[in-house]
Amino acid sequence: MSLGQRVSNDRQLTRLLQIGVVLEEVVESRAAHHLETLPPDERDAVDGEVETLLVDAAEESADHRERLETLIDDLEAETVSYEEINTLVDAQYGPPEDTDGVLYDQLANEETAYKFYDDLIAAIDASETEFAVDRDRLLDTLTTIREEEKEGAEEVTEIMERRA
Amino acid sequence: MNTADQYLKAIYLAQRIEEGPASTGTLADLLEVSPASVNEMVGKLEDRELVEHEKYKGATLTDEGLERAHNALQTYCIIERFLTNVLEVDEFREEARALESVIDDTVAERLDTIIDRPAQCPDCFDAEQDHCELLESGDHAK
Predict the structure, then answer these.
(1) How many domains does chain B have?
(2) Which residue of chain A is at minimal alpha-carbon distance from B99?
(3) For residue range B24-75, what is the model confidence (pLDDT) as tens digits?
(4) What is this structure's pTM?
(5) Running DSSP on this structure, what letter comes out for residue B114?
(6) Which fold has domain A10-163?
(7) Interchain CB distance below 8 Å, A85 and B100
(8) ipTM score here?
(9) Where are the domains of chain A?
(10) A108–B110 CB contact, under 8 Å
(11) Would the CB atoms of A85 and B113 count as touching at under 8 Å?
(12) Burial class, A83, CB count within 10 angstroms (exposed 0-12 / middle 13-18 / buried 19+)
């Protein structure tokens, strides 16, 4: 058991970045599933704002995934493909009942991703390990992604408040 | 998972292994820390009413401590199952132990949306083998 929040070696860092990729793929896949699986009357009720939010979330996740994959490439490791994660999401997916449910799920996605990157950055900061990827580039990438997750959560919250 | 939750999980597992209070020695072995560190943390958990400690016998979880330990073990099971089923990691126990301090329970909950976990989790966790007894290495989802 490893007590204390720190990343101690390249293998641990790689695993955490791979987990980041999967989290992004889950966001991307769930956003697509939400739009496809809402009942027709609910789908009609999904206004342009919510639809745009889901499309943007999927695009942003794909962008984050690519940035993480570049780091993982430098660590000479592989990632799980989007198609594989999409299949796993599909197997376990339970669609939200309505648009509010979609928004809550989207908020959970953004907040979870923010928490993940925040913990990962803290764990890298707490470590003196010299990784196979440049530490500044690694932290720059993760900090930018974390900021975008924070903005994403704020955007969902604003939409939820307007709809309340 | 924070350090307190890692201790609570270790106490829960030690209680199962020893079929009684968790001794300082067993906890030190499970957590790979010194007995002095264990005693200090158990004292803090006792102050928070998560653990009851009896001298020369060991630590026992309170109802609240048990609930938190259960959740922590569930998070750990999700990490192990995710590493095995999704990332296809053979040495999933070692890697789960290394990762658990960095993976928050909210993150584990999201990972849980893509894995197939038994309804009785975490009761099916084998404390001595340090993994779910229903999880086989090579038990990949694809």
Answers:
(1) 2
(2) A12
(3) 999 999 998 999 999 999 999 999 999 999 988 999 999 999 999 999 999 9
(4) 0.88
(5) G
(6) Ferritin (1.20.1260)
(7) no
(8) 0.86
(9) 10-163
(10) yes
(11) no
(12) exposed
